[in-house]
Amino acid sequence: MTQTLEESLFQRKQTAFLLSPDKAFAEMLQKLWSPDVLEFTVFEKGGNAIEHMFNEPPDLLVVDNRLDDISGQEVANLVKSENVYRQLPVVMCVDPIDVEEPWNWNKIEVDDFLVRPFNPSEVRDRINLTICRAMRALDANPLSKLPGNTSIIQRIQQLIDSSEDFALVYCDLDYFKSYNDKYGFSRGDEVLMMSARLIVNTIRSYQGVQSFVGHVGGDDFVYILPPDLAEKSCQRIIKDFDDIVPHFYDPEDRKRGNITSIDREGVTKVFPLMAISLAVVVNTDGRIKHYGEVSSIAMGLKKKAKEDPKSSYVIDQRKT
Amino acid sequence: MDNDLKTSIKGEILQVKDLPTLPHVLNEVTKLLEDPDASSEAIGKVISTDQVLSAKVLKMVNSPIYGFPGRISSIQHALVLLGFNVVRGIIISTSVFDMMVQAMKGLWEHSLGCATACNIIARRAGFEDPEEYAVAGLLHDLGKVVTAVQLPDLHKTISDTVLAKELTYFQAEKDVMGFGHDRINAWLARHWGLPPNIREAMSRHHTPQLAEFYKPMSCVVHVGDFLVRLFEFGNSGDDQTAYLRPEALIELKFKMTDLDKVMDEMAEQLIEVSDLTF
User: Fold this and answer.
1) Structure confidence at residue B78 as a pLDDT band (50, 70, 90)
2) Whole-model pTM?
3) What is the pLDDT of residue A12?
4) Cα–Cα distance between A279 and A305 in angstroms, integer?
5) Which among B36, B68, B85 is the nearest to A190, CB-wise?
6) Size of interface A-B (CB pairs under 8 A)
7) What CATH number should be reported for the domain whose range is A149-315?
8) From the candidates A201, A204, A241, A252, which should be mutated to test the interface with B, based on the most B CB atoms within 10 A?
9) Residues of A with Cβ-Cβ distance to B76 under 8 angstroms
10) Which CATH number fits domain A14-139: 3.90.105.20, 3.40.50.2300, 3.90.1070.20, 3.30.70.2740?
11) Euclidean distance between CA atoms A127 and A130, whole angstroms
12) In sequence order, which residues have a C-beta less than 8 Å from that of residue B166 and are 6 or more positions away?
């Protein structure tokens, strides 16, 4: 209850809707967290909450099966059937008699449930876990399961705020699009999975240092390492990538060393095998103040790295 | 392991689970994995001397979980993509072969010798990625390991038949089981999602002329198997001379002088191989 946001498990204040006629339960929930950490808005009728929820979706929805105007299951399904709301975690509260028969959890797509009588410390941790799990799932790239943009930005800002030296390496694949066009997206996904795995293993092989790998989306990845390891890591990734990627082509294309693919204008064009371009932004002595600077420097460098059709890396040479 | 292969041979169940390996290779890899300075090249080199570890590593990296099934046929690439953690997991879950070390050692040497031969032959024939041919050579008798480990009684009957009827191990397998290790290889390779080139070479090394898609690799393993038997390096279950298919030499565009050159190189390298590992 006295916990501050910094001490909590969350990066920012969370909001929650409680849909329940059970006043004692509402009181208990509101005592478990400081409103600066997790703030509950209580609705005694389910119907009233729906519109609010659609206009301003909270970070968590707790639905009581004791609602008398609309069933808890119906509320849950309403949320989960809409793609824009389905990431919203839903916790269902039930009475023991409700769960005497097994539920079809494929039809009631909630994230967790609580059974009366409620034990406050269990409720607290089940809800904490549900929120943490939802944050992880929401941000992870659906293909590679690597952390996505929110986590990447957070991590960069954290490093800037703590004025730690770091190198951020921005990776993307050259001629990925023409590969995708020729071989189809599922073969394209294979290449992305391979690239993700290659980057993760290279970075993780540097033990005992702060590191991070994220998937911006598509064929764009980033990783963070201490500055002194950045160049070596680029060289290793390029070597392994260039060794492995030919195996993702059909034997004839591999032998020829290029693919023939038709571009948007319907013109037949020859494209080289995929390569990887790496742009390294080094932040030493607190030179960079905001994550936006990091990405704009990286974009500039990336253009430079891309000028070379072969795999290459460019390191930001600017001094403080 | 949920995806064990199970099949019945004359009423007995042949299943692939927990293939053990020789202690020294396992120790060596464990040691390297504990060394923070060890390179994946060094680890790959040691794993490439062991057919069971190599098979396990390739099975894992080609499983659908990683998202690129059937694409990776090089141990080196597999290590880069699996990472040391996963490899450590494979090592931990691999048991040692104490009981059968003596009985199986010949087969290990034969497989390693064949891998060496395949590498040399593939280079001589001017093929790209000779290491992949070596992998196929290394795994070409994996089916024999499976029978020996999972059905020791049947293995003994086969070995007895080899002696009694003066057959090759391959002929004796057919005599006893109704089919040979080439069939077991085909099951294993398909079940484990190994890349199609390795798969075909494993199942066609006795009949390379029947290979459909990767004839060159099947032929390389066929010739490698023949030559390593000629050298009497290791033992693959019998001491008969194998039959060398002329089609294989034609496919590789090999003349007798090429075989001579290959054998010269083998003589050199096999000494190193036996020094290193046995």
Assistant:
1) very high
2) 0.80
3) 85
4) 7
5) B68
6) 50
7) 3.30.70.270
8) A201
9) 243
10) 3.40.50.2300
11) 5
12) B240
